[in-house]
Specification:
By secondary structure, the chain is an all-alpha fold. It has one domain: de novo design (two linked rop proteins) (Up-down Bundle), CATH 1.20.1440.60. The chain contains 4 helices and no strands. The longest helix has 27 residues. It starts with 7 loop residues before the first helix and ends with a helix.
């Protein structure tokens, strides 16, 4: 690995951030400092933690940041379910972000296994 920018999990994480920003644009204005902000921060946390961990150049620290990214994925997935239950997003619009979350989770889990077994 040259840099975090070479990792598919990071690239897909950036794609997820853009997707979440687009989805949350249509949320009610009274959610600006609530769910909208929380979802955006959770999404941003995913590629940010992958990048920060990779940049630390120490396997134990990298693992710690990868676990944080996994936690942010779970947080964001939960928030998407909440938005559907609140009727902010139609259920059919959840497929793309949920599938991307599953893909990134798999990629980050693969990175965890790789780093652990080095």
């Amino acid at each position: 690995m040259k840099t975090h920018k070479d990792l598919d999990a990071w690239k897909n994480g950036i794609e997820l951030v853009v997707l979440i920003y687009g989805l949350t644009k249509s949320f009610p204005k009274d959610e600006l400092y609530g769910l909208t902000s929380q979802m955006r921060r959770a999404a941003i946390s995913i590629p940010s933690n992958i990048a920060e961990g990779a940049g630390r150049n120490h396997d134990k620290v990298f693992l710690q940041f990868l676990y944080i990214a996994l936690g942010s994925l779970a947080e964001l997935e939960t928030q998407l379910v909440i938005t559907e239950r609140l009727n902010y997003i139609p259920v059919q619009e959840l497929d793309i972000p949920i599938n991307l979350i599953k893909l990134i989770r798999s990629q980050v889990s693969g990175l965890v296994n790789y780093v652990r077994n080095k």
